[in-house]
Model the fold of this input.
Amino acid sequence: MARRKKIYEGKAKTLYEGPEPGTIVQYFKDDATAFNAEKKDVIEGKGVLNNLLSEYFMKGLGQIGVPTHFLKRLNMREQLVRSCEIIPLEVIVRNYAAGSMSKRLGIDEGTQLPRPIVEYCYKDDSLGDPLVSEEHIAAFGWASQQDMDDILSLALRVNDFMSGVMFGVGIRLVDFKIEIGRVYDGDFQRLVVADEISPDSCRLWDIESGQKLDKDVFRRDLGSLTDAYSEVARRLGVMPNNPPSPSKPTLVN
Ligand code: TMP
Done:
């Protein structure tokens, strides 16, 4: 079988050329990094869980009319997505203070915010993804005003969907990060939710106990990351029946 062409290797995923023009295969790795890759580890099974969870969230978003790049899951580690031009922004939505916002503004973690707050970071690892304002985004041409209106609306729709889904299984969506891609349909461009939505890119706390079920478990050495992600997958009913075998992907229709 011909080897696929690798397009890009990121910290948690590798992208390969897809079978048809305009498609990409996203391979979810077991690598976990934090603090701009200063902290690294390999967490067996993380890629499988994130692949299944991201599929679940992206499909659900599609079903309520939020456009995403997701096409279909190929196997336990890979999904087929539409290729898109990633806008160089990390779009963060916060419902409760935590992480960098708590640090920056001195607000206790877990404090409910008066309304969801959307923040933008410029995607550049060498700069540590700095927080930027809409002024920077407009002045440097990273996105147009129309894009920004669409991005805000997408981010808030994702927040409503994700908050509801998680609340339904006893989990509080504290905050999350999404990335947005541009796809071209003929002369028209539209924006879609791209990359992944998984416990790597969200803060998820058990509503009753406050237990963390996201990547903070790894960032802050709070226990087993696989146990935390498996718990999220189990509650959502997307836990694989047989524990995933990383070396043997299974084709799904
Ligand atoms: P922060 O509080 O560290 O700024 O993180 C906000 C949210 O964004 C949190 O849900 C984790 C997520 N996130 C990423 O997905 N990638 C990153 O590189 C960082 C720093 C945060």
